[in-house]
Design goal:
Blueprint (H helix, E strand, L loop, with lengths): L1 H18 L6 H10 L3 H27 L4 H25 L5 H31 L1
Helix pairs in contact: 2-3, 3-5, 4-5
Keywords: Signal
Pfam families: LprI (PF07007)
InterPro entries: LprI-like_N
């Protein structure tokens, strides 16, 4: 039963990854394909892509800040700090200490997904404020 559940989770992780392909680099998809379902290699792919997405997030944050008044910059900083706290707390839940490397991978993928989505959100806001 546990193997069936693990298999179902892996399938859902694959569909989540495919659904977010527009947010991720092509290099990430290629890395995940080459990982061949090996959890440790998949975690490495996620870590590499997270570095890319974190850079994207920081760039979007700075671009948005450049279009804001001092008061709005402070509000953005507060929102971003709360978002980081939410992301980390939410994704930490995925990392079940009794779940092994698979749950570590789920937690890592959560951080990646949340970071990429937040980067996209801030990029969109920067576009709105730049007009």
């Amino acid at each position: 039963m546990r193997k069936l559940t693990l298999f179902a989770c892996l399938l859902s992780l694959g569909s989540i990854t495919q659904a977010n392909d527009a947010l991720y680099t092509a290099r990430y998809a290629l890395c995940m394909d080459h990982a061949g379902g090996v959890t440790v290699q998949m975690v490495d792919c996620i870590a590499t892509e997270l570095n890319t997405q974190d850079g994207r997030l920081n760039g979007a944050y700075q671009k948005l800040r450049s279009h804001l008044s001092a008061e709005r910059k402070k509000a953005l900083q507060t929102a971003q700090r709360l978002w980081v706290k939410y992301r980390d707390t939410n994704c930490d839940f995925y990392d079940d200490p009794q779940g092994g490397t698979f749950h570590r991978m789920l937690a890592s993928e959560c951080v990646l997904r949340e970071t990429a989505e937040r980067a996209q959100e801030l990029e969109n806001l920067a576009e709105v404020y730049s007009n």
